[in-house]
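Design job #97: recover the sequence.
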């Protein structure tokens, strides 16, 4: 996450933008894990 913030800062974006991008990426990963994990559990037949 700190790497994404560093990239945002290096690109000239405000720190809160980097934090928001990092948070969104983490949330997206969690959603993907939940969705695919749920599909595997429910559709494993």
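Job complete. Output follows.
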């Amino acid at each position: 996450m700190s790497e994404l913030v560093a990239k945002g800062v290096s690109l000239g974006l405000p720190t809160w933008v980097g934090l928001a991008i990092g948070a969104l990426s983490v949330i997206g990963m969690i959603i993907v894990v939940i969705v695919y994990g749920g599909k595997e559990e429910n559709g494993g037949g």
